[in-house]
């Protein structure tokens, strides 16, 4: 059964579209960054103890590109938002462990940790809303 997401405020559908596009584009860019800097990111992943770091960087980059484009366009939004949420759930404490780094790195890692927590929250909102029809969406994979 499909339920339409209907906002009562004027312009809310357009605001939701803008939010999807901004959030999705940011996530997709993060994924592209994995591919553009695969060597550097693989070295960082290896330093953090990730097994098969290059494969992890490429796979997670694909998850982020798929997730970002899916959220922005409204294509398989449950899978897209789920992929982003899963990536952030795993990568945030693994790669931005501000509590376990030297003092001179703590602020930077905490900032990245908190940024990821906010994005995780956003991905959960899109995941929760993936069971309803989205205005201005491609509509593939919507329930």
TrEMBL record:
Keywords: Membrane, Transmembrane, Transmembrane helix. Signal peptide: none annotated. It is a multi-pass membrane protein. It comes from the Archaea. Its main location: membrane. The keyword Transmembrane applies. GO terms for cellular component: membrane. It is found in: Membrane. The chain crosses the membrane at residues 14-35, 55-73, 79-101, 113-137. This is DoxX family membrane protein. It comes from Haloferax marinisediminis.
